[in-house]
Amino acid sequence: MNRLAYLIPLGLFAFIAGLGGYMLTQAKNDTIPSQMIAKPLPEFDLPAATEGVEGVKQADFLDGEPKLLNLWASWCAPCIAEAPQLEALKEAGAPIYGIAMRDAPEDVAAFLANHGNPYRAIGHDDISAIQFELGSSGLPETFVIDGKGVIRYQHIGVIREEHVPNLLELLEQAK
Amino acid sequence: MRIWLLAALALISTPLTAQSSGPPAPYANVQLEDPALEAEATALMHTLRCLTCQSQSIADSDAPIAGDMRHQVRVRLKDGQSPEQVRSWLVERYGDYVSYTPQVGSATWPLFAVPAVVIVLVLFALWRRLKGRKLRQEAQS
Fold it and tell me: Which residue from A7, A92, A104, B9 lies 20 to 30 Å from B128 (Cα-Cα)?
């Protein structure tokens, strides 16, 4: 019995080493989920990102209609990949509000000219303050906001074709 | 010759895909006027994780979002918030992950409890051993 006790540290070592080895084979998850789900949108009022569009403010989300809030930027390459899906969402009737992060008005205008404008309004945030308020850590990210301005869902990364039905469903549920 | 020309061109060219445009936030790379407050801000920044470059603190990172986070830290301290208030403001939004200094919570209490338990166990074993030795010495004499 006492002899076997000497095997305990070895066993512990083997367990920890094995655990480490196992974790190395697992895909790394880099996303940081927002803790703001089911909490109300913070107070904000952002100016228009470019000429000919409206700015975005918290009050826009309090009119009873669920909406998508899309964080993006003209300098964000994955946001280009996302543009056709936002267009599809818009055509399916989803109201999309955008916020361009750290962007210049002429760059936003060029992006919209090249990739279309699926947005009802586009605000501009040059210090990423709205990202921190929403618990968002990258671009693009899309939030489902219900009619009372409560955050219901966070989609991290590019919206691909297969995500579109899910987002429409979530908008329906948020009514 | 040609390689020097290329090197010179590389120096003056701007990257094709810039990370982001626009100047950094006002307090991203500017110290606070009050040195004591700036020291508090710097200490806090070293314990907050950069969101896009997750193995660096926001004090170490050149990422634009780290600059924006430094701006938030400095502005909030300037507004009279305590460093722990700023930390919990971020933890409320991103979870414990954003902080390098673990807080006692439902998931983290073993971190603090296990060392204490180990010390108690070691002291107990030591006490029993010393007592055993003393008894044997008494038995011999």
Answer: A7
Nearest CA in chain B to A131: B65
pLDDT at residue A150 greater than cutoff 90: yes
Is the distance from CB of B101 to CB of B57 less than 8 angstroms? no
The β-bridge relationship of strands A67-72 and A96-101 is parallel
B79-136 pLDDT tens trace: 999 999 999 999 999 998 899 988 788 888 898 999 999 999 999 999 999 998 888 8
What is the rounded distance in angstroms from the CA atom of residue B64 to the CA atom of residue B57?
13
Pick from A36, A77, A103: CB nearest B22: A103
For residue B32, give Cα distances in angstroms to A55, B24, B27, B84. Answer: 31, 15, 8, 18
| β pairing state of A45-46 and A121-125 | unpaired
The pLDDT score that the predictor gives to residue B23 is 82
Taking the Cβ of residue A134 and every Cβ of chain B, the question of whether any pair is shorter than 8 Å is answered with yes
pTM of the entire structure? 0.80
Helix, strand or coil, per DSSP, at residue A98 = strand
Q: What is the DSSP letter of B80?
A: T
* Strand A151-156 with A96-101, pairing: unpaired
Q: Locate tokens 């896009």: which residue? A: B52
